[in-house]
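Field notebook, page 134. I keep forgetting to write these up properly, so this time I am using the form the group agreed on. The chain and the ligand, zinc ion, are recorded exactly as supplied. Prediction of the bound pose follows.
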Amino acid sequence: MIMPHAFRLTLGMDLKQSILTYVKQKGMKAGSLLSCVGCLSHASIRLANESKSLELVGPLEILTLTGTLTPEHVHLHISVADQSGRVYGGHLQDGSVVSHTAEVCLAEYANLSFTREPDTATGFTELVVEELEH
Ligand SMILES: [Zn+2]
């Protein structure tokens, strides 16, 4: 039911876009981001309930990365630490750039299908879970 995946990203790669590309290439219908350790040279993070984003200049250590993987969209939340150990976190956006390396581990769920549909209650597209028959 759960299929593990692992890969490494290298200098200059966009963290969010690279994970989405991997999900598309593998044809994953549903999954989760399990772990990611590495470094960013730049982080673009949307804050809770804010339209503004936090733009951080590295070096930044990736402490955690978690999220939900759908075929056309990855919803990821990240925490990073700067050189003094101060931690920032929020919703990962495009424009967060890997420096040196990022080690990514994912889980794919063979029995589930994740999609996103507009939800008038939130104003966003929200996760829709479907259980696949076997
Ligand atoms: Zn989010």
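OBSERVATIONS:
- Strands lie at 2-10, 31-46, 53-70, 73-81, 87-92, 97-109, 112-119, 124-131.
- The chain has one domain: 2-131.
FOLLOW-UP: compare against the apo run.
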